[in-house]
Every structure is written in C-alpha cells, then in structure tokens.
Amino acid sequence: MRKFLISFLLLALTVALSAQVIFYKPLSERLTGYTMDVELDPEAKTVTGSMEAYWINNSQSPVPDIQMHMYLNAFRSNKSTFYRESNGSPGSSEIDYGWVEINNIIDRSGKDLNGFLEYISPDDGNPDDMTVLRLNLPEPVAPGDTAFFYIDFTSKLPGSIRRTGFTDDFFFVAQWFPKFGVYETKGMNGAEEDGWNCHQFHAHSEFYSNHSVYKVRIKVPEEFVVGSGGQLIKQEINDQGIKVLDYRAEDIVDFAWTAWPGYSEHEGQWEHVNIRFLYPPGRDDQVDRHMAAVKYALEYFTERVGPFPWPHLTFVDPPMKGSGAGGMEYTTLFTTAGAARLPEYLHMSEMVTVHEFGHAYFMGMLATNEFEDPWMDEGMNSYWESRIMDHYYGPGKGIIEHEHFYMSDREMQRTGYVHASNRKVSDNSPWSWDYPHGSYSMLSYQKAATWLHTLQGIIGEETIDSVFKTYYNEWAFRHPSPDDFIEITNKVVTQMHGDRFGEDMQWFFDQTLYGTGICDYKLAGISNYKQRSFRGIEKTDTAGMVLKKDDTAGDSIYKSVVRLERIGEVRLPVQLLVHFRSGKEVREEWDGKARYKDFEYTGTDRVEWAVIDPEYRITMDVNYINNSMTTKPDKVRRKRPVRKLVTFIQFFTHIISI
Amino acid sequence: MKFFKAFTSGAIRALRSIKAILLFWLMTFAVLAVFTYPLKSFINEAMGNSMITNLLDEGFNLTLFTDLGQAFSPMMSYITSGFLILLLLYFFLYNFLNGGLFDSLKTNKLSYKPGDFFRSSARLFLSYLVVMVLVILMILLAMVLVVGVPVLIQRAGGSVTEEQTWKLVSVLRIVALLVLPVFLLVADYSRTWLAANDYRKVFKSIGYGFKATFKTFLSSYFFMLIMIIVQGLFVMLVAKVLASYTPESGGGLFLLFLLSQFLFIVKLFLRAVRYGGVTALYRL
Ligand SMILES: [Zn+2]
Predict the structure, then answer these.
(1) N or C: which end of chain B has fewer CB within 10 A?
(2) If phi over 0 gives left and psi between -120 and 50 gives alpha, with beta otherwise, what is residue A271?
(3) Measured on CA atoms in the order A481, A487, A493, A495, is the torsion positive or negative?
(4) Residue-wise DSSP of A24-49
(5) Between chain A and chain B, how many beta carbons pairs sit less than 8 Å apart?
(6) How does pLDDT run across A460-489, given as a tens digit for each residue?
(7) A375 to chain B nearest CA, in Å?
C-alpha cells in the first residue's frame, strides 16, 4: 500500500513537472542550463544563493577549462574595463560598489574546485578587471560529456544603476550570476579554432551566450513585487514573511529580474503571449500606450520575421530613481523608458518599448555576438524598430506626430548618421570597444539601420522581408555571423531577382557594412536648348557664298538635358524622375557608378523638374536637398515658412517684453 | 467699482491712443522687414532650385531642417545668432516705444502728437529699461523656483513619488500664474509713475509700484489677472489661426501677412488697454 502510494506520488510529481515545461520540443541545443535558489537581502543589497549549472562539450575534442562571466565585478573598482571605457566611476561609498563572489564550487562528484579558479582578461589584458573567470579543470571534459557544477555565490548590486543595480528599495538584478561563456567550435561564427568566446564586460556590450533553461527560485520580503524573464510556476509566502517565487524560462540567453515594492501591474494578452507590465505609480496614463506598442511589435515581427514562441513576456518601466535600468533587453524580460504625462504626439517611450522588445529577435533568438558584431544586434534592431514605428504611427511620423511638425523613426536614424562629423571614421566591422572617436552608437545603431533601409530601397520591401524570414528560419536559436546574413541575402536576392543586381549583393555590403564612404547623388543641372533650323553660309555654283536659312524645320524643338553627379564614394543604383511641362513624366534608372550621367530628351516638350530617388529610398544619401531641381521654383512654398517664422518672432518678443 | 472703471477707462484710453499704437506697430514692422529680407535670401541660397520644400507641405519636417543645417551650417548660425540679435533689438525697441505709449495713455487725447510720442520714448527709455529688467528678473526667479523645486525634490530621491512631484508641479504652476499679476502691476505702476513724475527716480518708482499694487490690491489684481488671461487666450488663438493657415498662392501669402499684422495690432491694443487701465487706477 505504502509502495503504491509512493509510486503514485512520483507519477503525480512527474506530471506536475512536465506541466511546467514550456516547450515540449526544445527550441535550441541547450548546451548550458542553470537551476538557482537565491534570496534578496534588501538591506545589504545582495543576492545570495546556490546554483547548479551544466555545460555540454559538443566539440570533437576534450576541453581543459571552463570560462565564465562574472559581470557584476565590472562595478568592483574604478579600474575595471567597464569603467575605463566609460570614463565613469562606480561611486564613492562602500555601498555603491558591486561585485560577485563564488563562495564555494564543487563538481558532480563533490570535488572541491575552489583552488582552480583564476581571473583572466582576454580582451584587453587589464589586470584590474575581474569579469571573466577561468576554471582550470583537474580533468578535461571529454567530447559529448556534460560538466556539472554546484556553486554558492553572493552578488552585491552596484548603487549607481547602469543597466544593473539598486536605488533604495528598487532592484534591477541583471548580469548577476556566474554564467558560462560560449564554447565555439571551429567555423562557428567565424571561429578559427575551437575555444571559449568569453568577453569581459564592456561599456557598450554584454551579450553573447548559449540558449539555456533557467529554473530560478527567488526569495524576497513579501512586500516586493517581482518581475523576471521566466514564467511564474509557483508563488507562496512562507512563515518568515518571505515571498518564494519559482520561475522557469527556456531557450533564452540571459535571465534577469527586478524587485520593488512600488510597482503597479498590468496584464494583457496578445494571441498566445501573456504580457505583464510593471510600472511606477503615477504613470497609469501611459500603460495603454506601452501595451499597444509591444503588441504592434509582436504582430509586425511575427508577420515579417518569424514567430515569438514564448507564452510569457514581462516588461518594466522603471521609476525615475531606477531609470538607469531603462532600455535594456533580456528577451522575455525587457525594460522601457517612460515618463508620466508624456504628450500623445511624442512616441519616444513607445520607441524604446518596440526597440527593447525587438532584441528578443536580434540577439535573443538570433543570438549574435554583441561584442564582435554589434551592428547585427543594435543596427538590425534599430532598422526594425524604425519600420514598426513608422508603420503604426503613420508614415513619416514614427517619433513625432504633431499637427505642425513631425519626424519619422527612419529619418531619425538617418539624421544621426548622415549629420555626424565622424561618419566616415570606421566601417561596421570593429568589435564594440574598438569603434574610434565615440562612433560606436552612431555607426552600429544608426549607420547600420540606415544602410539596411537603403538595402530595402534597392531590393524592395518584399525581398528584404524574405531575407529576414529566411535568416530567422535558418538561424533562430543559433549564433549567426555577418557572413551568414550576407549569404542569405545573396541567396534570396538572386532567387527573387536573378542577376538584376549583379551576381550577388557583395558589392553592396563592401560599400556599406565594410565601407566608410558616403553616398551623395546630386542633380547638377537642367537645361532646355532651343533647336534652331539651319542658318549659315553655303557655297553655290551660281551666286557664290550665300546666306541660307532653313525655315521649314520647327523652331519649337528643344533639346533638354538633365545632369546627374555622384559626389560621394558609394555607388548605388538610383532612379530619376523627370517631369516635363506637358505633365508627362519619365522614370530613368542609373547604375550610379560613373561620376556623372546626362539624360537627354529632344522634342517639343521641355523638362520642368527632376528628382533623383523621388521616394527617398536611398536613405544613405547624406544630402537630400541637392537631389532635386526645378526650373520653376515655387516661391509661395519658400516664403510661407519665413513669413510664419518672423511673425512668431514679432509676437514672442512682444510677450516677453512685459 | 474701481475694477470696472479700470476696464472701461483702459479701453477708452487705448482707443484715444490709437495713433501711438499705430506708431508702435510701424516701428516694429520696420525692424521685421529688415530682418525678413536677408533670411529669405539665405534660404534661397541654401535651397538653390531644390524641390525639397515640398516636404514642408504637411507640416514642419524636422529632417529637412537637419539636412539644411548640415549643408548650410552658416545659415543655421545666422538664424540662431540673428534670432538672438533680433530678440535683443526688439526688447530695446519695445521698451523704448512703451515710453511713448504710457505718455499717450496718460495724456488721453486723440490729438496726441507723434513728436511727443518719440520725445517721451527717449526721455523714459533708461528708467523703463531698469524697471523692465528688474521685473523680468523677478519673474524669472519665480519660474526657476517653479521648475527647480520639484527637480530638487526628485533629485533628492527618498520617499517622494513621481505622482507627488507632479502634483507639486501643478500647484506651483497655479501659484506662478496667481503671482504673475503682482509683478506686472508693479512694473505698470512704476512706469505710470515715471511717466507722470520725475522720470529719473527709478527706484522711487518701483517702491511706488509695490505700494500702489497693494493699496488697491483687489481691483488692481483682478483687473490684471483678467487681462493676462484674455491676452493669453488671444495669443493661443493667433497661434492656432496662423499655424493652420497655409496659403497656396501669392495672394494668399499677402493675406497671411495682412492677417498677422492685423492680429499684432489687436495684440498691441490689448496691451494698451492693460497699461491704460493701470493708468486709470493710478489716477483714481
Ligand atoms: Zn538596443
């Protein structure tokens, strides 16, 4: 009887456990996994607990060491690589610093590994940086074997929040636990040989990890509201007034969480996705806006790139005091940056929501290496962010849609790049910390987004959507490299367009991703010459030299010339729209390779105006003003804003001079 | 009764000073015309024969603005520095013309002469400048408090929530509006006193400004508050009308010009009613 009961209980337990599984078929290889049991001490600002972690050696050879991120140590001193790169300082009091310490580490057999740990700095050799830990194993991990580790650790959160940390009783707990680097096998992501890819914590980059299963038990005092990247399995309050929350997350690259007694909560649903939104009191008026934005993003990405597989999604608008945690991405958990009473016509905070959600695709599912290829993370994501914003908030009005002035997200990205004085300082190939002269954000976000828009302008929306769908289908839950994306682009473009754009698209990537030149096409001139009939001296047999005038041919025939010039280094195919006086319009194509190109027309009609790239598809063009020319400038259009401006000045100055 | 008298007498005085108001307008218009011409030619030079202005059809396209800025940064600096110069120029000009206007309102005669207008403007210029600058400084100080206090409280963190800060901001905004009439009354009484008495005794006039404000506080205060609200509403209406009117032809453009100048004259008239009302209260 008793035996029966036990087996019944075991069966029930198995059923209960399997009910917690999110995906019956794993989405990724799951080469790493973490089971944690941790407790937040709000007074000491620490998270302490234990962790059971595994790593599978899927290479062909034994691996002698393990490398782990210890990223909270970036806040350990002002000499860390993170602080050296950002010229900041972690604060001045003891409580401001952050660190993570392994208190004990043993392997599956119980063997003590504490003596085998050493900090290394593979990126810059900085002896003061303690963000990468190497465990020199007593015995290597054989191919196909799984290494298990049991780790007790303490994480002290930093006091001036930069992506992670605390203010008072607000906690954003990210990059907080010892976490495996990525063991790359030869050929993967451009790796030349097998080895760990485990970068230090940098000012601009922090993500590259295997997709993992996380089972995390979090304990906090009961008044805290908690949000995490996992699905809440169970929640209870124990006798000591401690809230115990069990989370499970599958196939995500990082697990972060937040705790604050002040959060308000809102729940929503989009198809299969349960959306939970945590926000500070006083911002209730912004909830619908954020929810709409995240649903737009879900819809657009699902249609154009691929499905969002998880049934759960949590996002957070941190309070003012925790704003340092805003605008971060942990796939199934992300943070936006809101403000109470933000005017309806400003979509900045929806933009952050859409952007950070988008990282679930670019870096989350398509788990690129943010350290080495930041443009595949931030650039691609900014490109999609701007498409979504401009799609849902009105073409040309994705960021500002005021009655009298407006700005599109695409144009905001473009403006950031084309007007930067250092726009030619580097291409998009450097690693995140190697971008010179503070060009990292401008080049890896804005320039990359802008040349992706230009690519769309050349190959068309349908084709680029197909490129990204294929990219998703082939690379989601793996680690694609730039070459993988280029290969897919080449494949899809030639499939859909044959050799219309050449043998492949390499010429495009050479000039944009791997090029520093600027693109600028100019409409240099329009001329209409009257074609006169013959007038001149002719030698005749009878009268000698005589003046001859041929009056029969029309004096109303014109030769019109439209002159185009390529000012920039970048050569892209462009379209030209020519408008004649009669209203007739002609579209021309130019491969854009030569330094100039003239288009000539002969007939009774005359060219009135002409525009290069009339739809502004070549977003890389650094100057739109010289793209067009007219022989009949519209004076009213030009004077109108001047009139309004001076009237404004007249009134404004009268108001302020009491 | 004083309160109603301020309005009627202010309006009558303003009507009788119509010549001064028109002179006032003519002078500001002349400065405007001088500024408009180079701005127009700069824009023409920057745009060439480009059709980029088509982007302005639906409103103010910020992209176009930034492209202009990049290609023609001298123009941008011209606009910004030109704007500052114009701001200062106007500031002095308005201050100068206020002298004539106050004098005309004090004289309260349709036959008031342009010569007197300019003579009083010149005579009162310096004293008026001191009054204006001092009162504007007081207003700025009040505004710094309105903006600064919530920011400081928020910065200090601790237990203050965003919600409470926002409530504080709303309260402070109302307080600022309620205090504004006091500052303006001080300025207007001082200037009225200067126009009627020794124009060199600036500080005495300010002292008088405060005294007069609080002596006739209720009627003065509500008169000024209502004038501020009326003028505020009028300016909002002007902004709406001018922003939404986009003429398509040269004729329409001329109409826009006439309309804007007419509205500006109305604005000057409302200001004259305010000055005239205070002048009337001063006489009572
Ligand atoms: Zn991002």
Answers:
(1) N
(2) left
(3) negative
(4) SS-SS---EEEEEEEEEETTTTEEEE
(5) 185
(6) 999 999 999 999 999 999 999 999 999 999
(7) 23
- List pLDDT tens digits, range A345-393: 999 999 999 999 999 999 999 999 999 999 999 999 999 999 999 999 9
Give A140's contacts (C-beta < 8 A, 6+ positions apart): A62, A63, A64
Strands A195-197 and A182-184: antiparallel
Partner residue facing A281 (CB), from B62, B161, B238: B161
Cα–Cα distance measured from residue B234 to residue B228, given in angstroms and rounded to the nearest whole number: 10
Q: Which amino acid is at A438?
A: G
Report the chain A residue with the minimal C-alpha distance to residue B54.
A637
DSSP B25-63: HHHHHHHHHHHHHHHHHHHHHHHTT--GGGGGGGSEEHH
Count the helices and strands in chain B (H runs, E runs).
Answer: 9, 1
Report in angstroms the alpha-carbon separations of A399 from A33, A347, A629, B31, B266: 40, 5, 29, 37, 37
Give me A79's structure tokens. Answer: 């000499």
Report residue B157's pLDDT band, with 50, 70 and 90 as the boundaries.
Answer: low
CA of A467 to the centre of ligand 1 (A): 21
- Closest among A542, A551, A597, A558 to A574, alpha carbons compared: A597
Residue B83 pLDDT greater than 90, yes or no: no
Neighbours of A85 (CB within 10 A): 20
- Cα separation, B195 vs B121, in Å, equals 10
Q: What single-letter amino acid sits at A202?
A: H
Which DSSP state fits A433? G
Give the integer Cα–Cα distance in Å for A128 and A81: 8
Residue given tokens 């308000």 in the structure block: A264
* Ion ligand 1: residues, Cβ under 5 Å: A 378
Q: What is the pLDDT of residues B160-197, one digit of tens each?
A: 667 777 788 888 888 888 888 999 999 999 999 998 88
Contact list in A for residue B257 (CB cut-off 8 A) is 643
Whether residue B3 lies within 8 A of chain A, CB to CB, comes out as no
As a whole number of angstroms, the distance between CA A451 and CA A513 comes to 8
Exposed/middle/buried for residue A36 (C-beta within 10 Å: 0-12, 13-18, 19+): buried
The whole-number pLDDT of residue A515 equals: 96
Q: Render the burial of A522-531: b for 16+ CB within 10 Å, e for the rest.
A: bbeebebeee
The answer to whether the beta carbons of residues A78 and A90 sit under 8 Å apart is yes
Rg (CA), chain B: 22
* Banded pLDDT at A36 (limits 50, 70, 90): very high
Asked if ipTM goes beyond 0.85, one says yes
